[in-house]
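Title: Prediction job returns without error message
Component: structure pipeline
Severity: low
Priority: P3
Assignee: unassigned

Description:
Job completed but the reporter wants confirmation the result is attached to the right record. Sequence as submitted:
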Amino acid sequence: MAAVISVLTNQFFLIFLAIALGLLIGKIKIGNFSLGVSGGIFSGILIGYLAYSWASGVQEGEVGYSSATSVLNTGVVSNLFFTFFLMLFLVSIGMKVGSSIGAIFKRYGIRFVVIGVMIPVLSMVVTLAAYHLFFKNSGIISEFETIGMYAGAMTSTPAYGTALDAAGLVVSGDALETASSAISLGYTVSFPIGVLVIVLMISLLPKMFRFSVEEEKTAYEKELRETAAEKKIKDSPLDFMTLALVAAVGIIVGNIMILLGSFGEFSLGAAGGILVAALILSYIGKIGPLNFRMDQKSLGILYQMGLTFFMAVVGLRYGYDVVNSLMGSGLQLAIASVFVEGIAVIIAYLVGHKLFKLNWVILSGAIAGGCTSAPGLGAAISATGSEEPTAGYGAAQPFAILANVLLATLFFNIV
């Protein structure tokens, strides 16, 4: 029996099982709607919840105790899988679409910045409204859980870290320890909800507002042809040395801290740095003997593999937290986080599509970037059937990170 349990809780077994079931779920169509590769998140949530729940109930001395301990210690699957497949996805998709970013910026310019900043600002407005209307007088949820909830809904680790620092300016001693725990609770409950909300909304917005994704893709391809100005550089075969070099450069870029004076500091993080480096170097095309334009089919296979594994790992790691938050004391925070992110996404869509006339293909990526959500980018790629949302994501995400850090810093002064 112990051998069977060891196999069933093996990290690789769980990942491949989540992928297989997720892709099966993704093929289910309701009308013209399907989850595609995003199905891996939902299969992962189910498997992750069942695995973690089982492990939590195993007592020392019982059969499977060592396997259960491993599940609890790793969070079902190791965070290294999460990080590696995210980086693989971002470097390959960035290299694939980077050649077109010149044409995209020429046409859309500052509008990406507006979308990137708008979503965090609107989310903060909804957060403040929720606090003053529902939380403040409840005696259950304080301003500390509230700012944690905001950071989680925005899936923003920089905002979470900034909130912890900012709390030290308003409380100290034992009160600071309590405040830090409250911020962490809000973040932990809301983060997986934030991931699910953006994935679902990216998939459902075309249905909600009754527009054709295929018509948007056709129009977008026409726009690119009209504004195309990329350098004509022949694609080279897939070169893992160059790909690894781009990733290494991206990690360096992502760890550069940008000082904001009294507001603290921020960085893109390793994942954000890798995407930006891949987009820019692919756009440049060639530096000396290094050719950053690689075979499109090979890059497509690589990013699809990274995305498929990443989505499944996201579900596995956060499955227990998602279900537990919806069943436990975090329900109010979970519900609030749906509105914090959902309202901002809908308004950003209306402004971007109706006012700025941004094509949905590129806007879907910009909205995911405004939510700093890599799973959201994966959902945009899957829902549009195009890699082009990546450029919008890469353009909007840095400004969203900056806005999140500034807003988290200011929160305790405006709450």
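Comment from assignee: result matches the submitted record. The longest strand covers residues 258-259.
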